[in-house]
Amino acid sequence: MFNIGEMLFLASSLGALTYFIGTLIMGLPIPIYGIKKWGPKLILDGLYVTALVNAYGSILTLSSMIQSYLGATWCNFFKWVCCLIIQEIALNAFLRTIYGIIAVASGPTAGVLLSEVGVLFSLFGSLITTSETLLIIARIVYEYSQVFIALGILLISIPFRVGRGVGGSLIGFSIVFYAALPYLPNFLTSLGANVLQDLNNIPNNNACCIVVYLMTKVVPLLIEGTIVLPIAYMIILSGISIGVGAAISGYSSRLPIPIEIF
Fold this sequence. Notes:
Blueprint: H1 4-27, H2 33-36, H3 38-54, H4 56-70, H5 74-104, H6 110-156, H7 164-180, H8 184-190, H9 195-198, H10 207-249
Keywords: Membrane, Transmembrane, Transmembrane helix
InterPro entries: CedA_arc
Transmembrane segments: 16-35, 66-86, 98-124, 136-158, 165-184, 227-248
């Protein structure tokens, strides 16, 4: 569906076009600074695009090296996410069984337990949706990061820097998220939010104790380990990717330190 070779070839052609437009502007007999100033910029842009096209393989290697340095792999990450979703679905099915048992039982606490289980249904539905969304994002990053990098180079190659900011952002996003997103389980473990391990300690003596344990232990842990901390981690990665994208695109105004690249 996406031909990376064609993207890079088109980017290289646009880079050459940008270079020759720059040389043409430099040779125009028009003493207007507003036009003449684009000549050196376009020449440098053309050379920069050529360098990016040639460095495409090196960019992919850099992402893999950073991921290896972090000690994370996509295989372990997908295994972790799938196990998390399976356990959440199993808990949801377990709650349905408890709901049916409580519904046929009679007693002063049955109504209270039914309302609590109903709240747990909605919470687990939201948690499952969040985990599946994380899995979809990870799949997109894993399968299309190479395409995003090639597309980013193609956007940067458009003359007069029309797509330079978007292209740099795509490349920065692909590098950072491909390298660091698989580290999320390790990040949670380092903060003490070991979701999979703590889900195996649910008591099985009676329905009341199970509901109380789920409300007081499991649900807060899942909210912290599947919503709060992952969102915080994604925000951190987004900030880093914005900085990397700004450095690649050459917009120093977005960086915390004044560095001008081309």
